[in-house]
Amino acid sequence: PEVVVWREFDRAKLYTADLESGLHHLLRVELAAHKSLAGAELRTLKDFVTVLARLFPGRAPVRKLLETLQEWLASLPLDRIPYNAVLDLVNNKMRISGIFLTNHVTWVGCQGSRPELRGYTCSLWRLFHTLTVEAGARPEALDGTGLEDDPQAVLQTIRRYVRTFFGCKACSEHFEAVAEESMGTVKTTDRAILWLWETHNLVNSRLAGHPSEDPKFPKVPWPTPDLCPACYEEIKGVHSWNEGQVLLFLKQHYSGDNLVDTYAA
Ligand code: FAD
C-alpha cells in the first residue's frame, strides 16, 4: 500500500500550502466542470475572482495571478467564455514572471487521515473565513469594484460561488438554505465574520458522526477551548460563547499574519 507521509502541523496556524492547493483545485478542477460560462454564472465567477484578487492574503505570485485573471475577466467584451480560456490564463503564467499558482496538491492543516477525507472542502472553508476577515480589516480593498460599502458583499459573493460552482451539491443546497434564512440580517463586517463562523459550526454539528467525519478531526464546536479559552463562558453552568472574544480570535486566526509557508511549493 501507498505510504502516506504525515506532515506535522500546528492547529493554531494557517498554511499557505492549504490555501494555494485549494485555489488550484478551485480554478483547475472545480471550474472545469463548466465548459463555458455566461450570464449569471460568468457574473458570479467575475465577482468571486474580484474578491479573491482584492482580499486573498497569500503570497505575491498568487495574488498577481488573481489580479491578472480579474483584469482579464473585467476587460472581456464577450458575454460567453470557454472555461479553457480561464485555464490557459491560469496555466500560462510562469513563476519567472512573478505570476504563479502551484499545480501540486499539498494538504497540511487540511490533511485527512485517509485520502478521501478533508482536503479541498477544508481549504475552502479556510479561504472563505480569511476573505471575511480581510474584508473587515481592509474595507478599502474593495473600492471601485462595486462591492464596496456593503457589509454583506463578501458573504453574498461566497454564497453565489457555492450555489453555482461548489462540486458538492448536497453541501451547496444546505448552505443556500441557511443563507436564505439569515445572511440578510448581517449589517456589519464583524457580523459577516461571525455569521460564517456560526454557520460553519452549524455544519459541524450536523456532520458529527457522518461518514465524511475524519476520526482524527472530530466535528466539535470550534474554536476548541485549547485554541481559545477566552471564547468560553459559563452562565449558570451552561456553556455559551463569548462572542467578543470569538471575534477577536477569528480576526487573529484568519489574518495574513497567521499564515505560514512551511510545505508550500
Ligand atoms: P472543516 O469543517 O472543513 O473546517 C476546516 C477548518 O476550519 C478546521 O480544521 C478548523 O481549523 C476551522 N474551523 C472549524 N470550524 C470552524 C468555524 N465554526 N469557524 C471557523 N473556522 C472553523 N460535507 C458534508 O458531508 N455535507 C454537507 O452538507 C457539507 N456542507 C458544506 C458546506 C460548505 C459551504 C463547505 C465549504 C463544506 C461543506 N461540507 C459538507 C464539507 C465539510 O464541512 C468539511 O469541510 C469536511 O467534512 C472536512 O472537515 P474538516 O475536519 O476538514 O473541517
UniProtKB/TrEMBL annotation:
Domain called ERV/ALR sulfhydryl oxidase: residue spans: 113-222
Free-text function comment from the UniProt entry: Catalyzes the oxidation of sulfhydryl groups in peptide and protein thiols to disulfides with the reduction of oxygen to hydrogen peroxide.
Family per record: Belongs to the quiescin-sulfhydryl oxidase (QSOX) family.
Protein name per its UniProtKB record: Sulfhydryl oxidase
The species this protein was found in: Enhydra lutris kenyoni
Residues of the full protein shown: 299 to 563 of 688
